[in-house]
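Students often ask why we bother encoding 3D structure as a string. The short answer is that it lets us treat folding as translation between two languages. Here is a chain of 79 residues written in the first language.
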Amino acid sequence: IRPTLQGLLIDPSIPSAWEGYTVTRRWRGTELTIKVKNPGHIQHGVAEMKLNGESVSGKLVRPEMLNGMKNAAITVVMG
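And here it is in the second language, the structure alphabet:
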């Protein structure tokens, strides 16, 4: 999870034994709760990402997607 010039890149790499993890991060004034799920027990790759329940294409959260939100939930399914 790292900021880039285009937005916040969410591209997890974890041990395959992990079921997932949750992290809270403040970015551009928004508190993000990021939940990563790893049902296939892989080490890298994003199959699906949602911001507040709505699908996001790719692995990047752009600043305009948050549109001044104070809190947001991001769910990432690895695959």
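Translate back mentally: The chain has a mean pLDDT of 96. Keep this in mind for the problem set.
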